[in-house]
Description:
- This protein is an alpha/beta fold.
- The chain is built from 15 helices and 13 strands.
- The radius of gyration is 23 Å and the shape is globular.
Amino acid sequence: MILYIDPGTGSMLFTVLLGLITTVYFFVQRLFVRLKVYLAGGKNGKADKNYMPFVIFSDDKRYWDYFIDVCRIFEEKGRELVYWTCSKDDPILKEEYRHVKAEYIGNINAASVRLNRMKAGVCLSTTPGLDVYQWKRSRDTGWYVHILHTAGDARVYRMFGMDFYDAVLVTGGHQIEEIRQLENIRKEEAKEIVVAGEPHIDKLYDRYKREGVPDKNGFTVLLAPSWGESGILRRFGEKIIDALIDTGFYIIIRPHPQSMQSEKDMMDRLMEHFPDSDKLEWNFDHDNYECLSKADIMISDFSGVIWDYMFIFERPVIYADVEIDEGPYDIYCTKDKRWPIKILERGGIKLEEESFPKLKEIIEDAVNSENIRKTIEDARSEAWANPGEAAERIADYMLSKYQSLEADTGA
């Protein structure tokens, strides 16, 4: 008798097996590093002139909002911090600090060479995939900290995105449960998890309090899709834009930046078919504040910008009926719904293609929905912890962790 395993089960078994193998590898690797540190007298390279107590690694300039206030705190405290970036035009490169040293270290391939030989105490990064892709743990770096850059689900990274970090800084309590769920499935050693908050949303909220809402062209709908096969523009194309134009509202379309690289043919076609007009605009600004603040309602899919919009401006989101192939992502192991879907199903409006002709009515209902307003309040309290305090908590964690590492190694 031939044993049949369906593709879904087979994929799950392979994922679990791969997780066990990588976990054993990582455990042995960590033991080797600790043994080396012990035999070296616990100094772990601190006497080396290339040793850096604190490093922030950013693979893209768009994460500057997450780190700007952390850098400010280090500068004010007079603590030396090295900031490595993969963007030639990262804003930090124009800053004039005394204690924060910024350096462009090339694209991710070139950067990985530096990172893999890094000699540091504590390294903080938003980049997933440590010890999975090009970026490997350096035996001369004591502690790796990952900071989540979305208030959404922690399990939407590609497989093992956070597994080989020592600690994760999360935005809210729900992400603790999600990370622990993955660790239990993979039989991994528990990481340190600290609820720090969301520095990007903190910055956005401060700006909203200072600047308010700019002038706009009447009632405005923001279409803010993600990119890829499951994104709104790929899934619905001209149909959803036609439906939006038919509402008579002012429309802002803000595609994901990756769309202009990975979906250029589609974008060229749509922009030629629907050029800028007095009723529609395409927005590609690096800074998304203006279009977010102008919008009375957002239509999106699974983009993390949903939380920026809902938490700061407290306005409704209509989520499109799109499906994601979860096979390559951590959440596939859990067979659980993504946290954003749970939230949006609790008090959101799902937009399906057959309802496009009624889009104006759907938008008006969403704007006036008390249930949606209550859901936004609940989501804020669950996913955006410590409002206004994230940067301070992140800096404090890095400093205290370094101090404890020094104590542990007898430095």
